[in-house]
Amino acid sequence: MIDDILLLYQLKPSETAYAHYAPSAIFHDPVSIAEGLDSIKSQFNGMPKAFAESVTEKCDLLAESDSSHLALNLTQKYVFKSPIPFKEKGTEKTVNSKVTLYLDGQGQVERHNEEWDWQGNKSEEDGWMGKMQQVRKKIDAKVVETGVPTNPDKV
After folding, report:
1. DSSP string, 26-51
2. pTM (2 decimals)?
3. What pLDDT tens digit does each residue of the chain (155 aa) get?
4. Side by side, which strands form the sheet with 51-61?
5. DSSP secondary structure of 68-127
């Protein structure tokens, strides 16, 4: 499961990776809150539009993992596509994240949380600003969903 999901981060989306997600799964990171499998597919299928490459530099399973969730220490290097014509690669950004995959009774991912620099994601529980961020993240996910196919073969 972990190796398949890492392929999503590595710009290699596949139905095999998405098969690990429940239909009603939620993905939450600092950029978006994608609700439902199709929205999650659009988020990961859209990454090759922004990035020339994405390399997993480190992924460790954390001791807190158990049968209800898998917690990962993930270091991912993203290389943006260049805005300059005829130049393939742009700037690089390495992100260290805590990724938590919460599993349902069938072992499918029902919630996928990614916390950049191990900082918790803001939500409505964090007051007015958290609520505003939550609304923005849901809108961001819907915008991506309308412009990116859910079929990984069409990426």
Report:
1. EEE-SS-EEESHHHHHHHHHHHHHHE
2. 0.90
3. 999 999 999 999 999 999 999 999 999 999 999 999 999 999 999 999 999 999 999 999 999 999 999 999 999 999 999 888 888 889 999 999 999 999 999 999 999 999 999 998 887 788 888 888 888 888 889 888 888 889 888 87
4. 33-35, 21-28, 109-116, 89-103, 69-81, 51-61
5. TEEEEEEEEEEEEEPSSTT--EEEEEEEEEEEEEEE-TTS-EEEEEEEETTPPPP-GGGH
